[in-house]
Each structure stands twice: as C-alpha cells, then as structure tokens.
UniProtKB/TrEMBL annotation:
Translation initiation factor 3 C-terminal domain sequence ranges: 38-123
InterPro entries xref list: T_IF-3_C_sf, T_IF-3_N_sf, Translation_initiation_fac3_CS, Translation_initiation_fac_3, Translation_initiation_fac_3_C, Translation_initiation_fac_3_N
Cellular component terms per the entry's GO annotation: cytosol; membrane
Limits of the Translation initiation factor 3 N-terminal domain: 2-31
Superkingdom classification of source: Bacteria
Subcellular location, record wording: Cytoplasm
Entry keyword set: Initiation factor, Protein biosynthesis
Gene Ontology annotations of biological process type: ribosome disassembly
PROSITE patterns, per the entry: IF3
Subunit structure and binding partners: Monomer.
PANTHER family associated with the record: TRANSLATION INITIATION FACTOR IF-3, TRANSLATION INITIATION FACTOR IF-3, MITOCHONDRIAL
Protein name as it appears in the record: Translation initiation factor IF-3
Length: 126
C-alpha cells in the first residue's frame, strides 16, 4: 500500500489487507456514530387551548428540544376560528415563552392553509 505517493521515490508499506479493511470499517463506523440526524417533532393544538393543556404540550416539546430535535408547533383552525388568527398567534407566542429556556424560534408564526405554524430549535450549549 502506498503511504506517501507524492514523495520521490514513493513510499510503500507491506501490510495485511484484511486488517486494513477492518480498520477502515471501524473508522467509518465511528464517524457514522458521531453524526446526529435532526428530526422534526410536531406539537398540535387549537387556538382555544386551556393553560394546563398548553403546559403539558410545552413539557413534551421541552423533552424533544432536550433530545436535540426541532419542534414544529402548529395551531389548527376549524370553521369560524379562521376569523380569529390573532388568538392562534398569541397561543404560539405564549408557547415560545414557556419553552424559551430550552429552545429559540427558528421561523415565527405564519399561516399555511388552516394551520398557523412556528418552528423551534434547541438552544446551543455554549
């Protein structure tokens, strides 16, 4: 196997190919173990959610944020509730305030069809 192909003359080493292959597989496995896949978890609610229910949802979202996942918070409007989107925005901002110790707002509240959506990302450990 070539160790330094650009050197003059090129430096080569005689080695066991099976051992080399095993070492490379081991390095690859370590690199894969260190990678972290970020999942998006969703928390759904309605604009007229009660305080205790909101706190329960916030605790669940804090758990997701502690695990390093993004959280998609959505408020679903049904029927006439679409006329009161300001209530949904208030709920989302209150939710963001409850989870502010563990996450920050990535994308603010905006309407997507019948849902108002906001994304939270975990705070960096600095």
């Amino acid at each position: 196997m070539k160790v330094a192909p650009n050197a003059k003359p090129p430096v080569c080493r005689i080695m066991d190919y099976g051992k080399y292959k095993y070492e490379m597989a081991k390095k690859e496995k370590e690199a894969k173990k260190k990678q972290r896949v970020i999942n998006i978890k969703e928390v759904r609610m309605t604009p007229n959610i009660e305080d205790h229910d909101l706190n329960v949802k916030a605790r669940k979202a804090i758990g997701f944020l502690k695990d390093g996942d993004k959280v998609k918070v959505s408020v679903r409007f049904r029927g006439r509730e679409l006329g009161h989107t300001d209530m949904g925005k208030e709920v989302l901002l209150k939710f963001a305030e409850l989870t502010s110790d563990y996450g920050i707002i990535d994308k603010g509240p905006n309407m997507e069809g019948r849902n108002m959506i906001m994304y939270l990302v975990p705070k960096s450990d600095e």
